[in-house]
Design goal:
Its main location: cytoplasm. The protein has 294 residues and is α/β, with parallel strands linked by helices. Helices cover 51% and strands 14% of the residues. It is built from 11 helices and 8 strands. The chain has helices spanning 3-14, 24-40, 45-61, 70-86, 113-126, 143-154, 166-179, 197-210, 225-238, 255-264, 285-293, and strands spanning 101-107, 131-136, 158-159, 184-189, 214-220, 242-246, 268-272, 280-282. An 8-stranded mixed β-sheet has the order 3-2-4-1-5-6-7-8, with helices on both faces. β2 (131-136), α6 and β3 (158-159) form a beta-alpha-beta unit. α5 (113-126) runs parallel beside α6 (143-154) and α9 runs parallel beside α10 (255-264). The N and C termini lie close together (10 Å). It binds guanosine-5'-diphosphate. Residues 107, 109-115, 140, 143, 191, 246-247, 249-250, 272-275, 279 line the site of guanosine-5'-diphosphate.
Length: 294
């Protein structure tokens, strides 16, 4: 995870590893390299500027210049500020006391949305919930079959039907879940290759008519600033409760993970760290900051 960024940052921290006293010039030079490393990792420009300003202010304020191991202190400051940037998140989901709790997952095609529906259902089932999956992605031809297969693997019921629209599928799914005694409904909604009005209208209609209790946006961390831009657009249309970042296991740069919270204000709730169904964890900014700093 984040190998490229880690290599570049450790190079930058070398600048703080000087013999004798560190000068303000050393700090400037070191932070310039940190800045370049973050920009090359595809972190949002405003986020980088704000981040560097904060680290610099603390570095000067905490009298790094006089410290014996200035590099260690800088690493600690950068660590703390990275955690602040990604935001501490409470990944627990609030469940309704009566009737099924409805979770709506949305995202672009290929982001890992259907897989994440399965992973989330598995995680909740292990916590003692009784989930039902609802196949409302009628855009991608294979999505319904994929969800059914996931359901079979996990022994979790899947509501799927043909001949009706996605809103109706969701509504019928919620009714079926209540009837079957399921307490959690996970809606796998349609994705498209790009954001378009038709997709947004479909999702807004589902939100209005089905009234999900939580709306999560699934996005592929490897797409960097494109993931951030799509999260922003989805949040403007739907008021997201959280982001689920997928494919962090294959993300060498970290641009999406480091920008998305600041740019959108939406907390990152979970992270996907592999293709297998057990590879979903609550988002942990300390773990990420730790792996970035090596
Ligand atoms: P959808 O079109 O958004 O429903 O995407 P899918 O759920 O079909 O996932 C697209 C691809 O991404 C599949 O090959 C998944 O196995 C893969 N995928 C999903 N989540 C992760 C993840 O966290 N890590 C990795 N490495 N692959 C993932």
């Amino acid at each position: 995870m984040f190998d490229d960024l880690q290599k570049r940052l450790s190079g930058a921290f070398g600048r703080f590893r000087v013999r004798g006293v560190l000068t303000e010039q050393n700090i400037q030079d070191g932070l310039r390299e940190v800045r370049t490393a973050l920009l090359e990792a595809d972190v949002n420009l405003n986020v980088v500027q704000d981040f560097i300003a904060k680290v610099k202010q603390r570095a000067v304020g905490e009298q790094i210049i006089k410290s014996i191991r200035p590099d260690q202190q800088i690493v600690k400051i950068v660590h703390d500020e990275l955690v602040a940037l990604m935001g501490e998140t409470d990944a627990t989901i609030r469940f309704e006391k009566t009737g099924p709790t409805i979770l709506m997952l949305c995202g672009l095609q290929g982001s890992g949305k259907t897989t994440t529906c399965g992973k989330l259902a598995r995680m909740l089932a292990l916590q003692g919930r009784k989930p039902m999956l609802v196949a409302a992605d009628l855009q991608r031809p294979a999505a319904v079959e994929q969800l059914k297969t996931l359901g079979q693997q996990l022994a979790i019921p899947v509501h799927a039907e043909t001949g009706v629209g996605p809103v109706q599928v969701c509504q019928n799914g919620v009714a079926a879940a209540a009837k079957a005694g399921c307490d959690t409904v996970i809606l796998d909604t349609a994705g498209r290759l790009h954001i378009d009005d038709e997709l947004m209208e479909e999702l807004k209609t589902i939100e209005k008519k089905v009234k999900p209790h939580h709306v999560f946006f699934v996005c592929d961390a490897m797409t960097g600033q494109d993931a951030v831009a799509s999260a922003k657009a989805f949040n403007e249309a739907l008021e997201l409760d959280g982001v689920i970042l997928t494919k962090l296991d294959g993300d060498a740069r970290g641009g999406a993970a480091l920008s998305i919270r600041q740019v959108t204000g939406v907390p990152i709730k979970f992270m996907g760290i592999g293709e297998k169904l057990d590879k979903l964890s609550p988002f942990d900014p300390r773990r990420i900051a730790g792996s970035i700093l090596g």
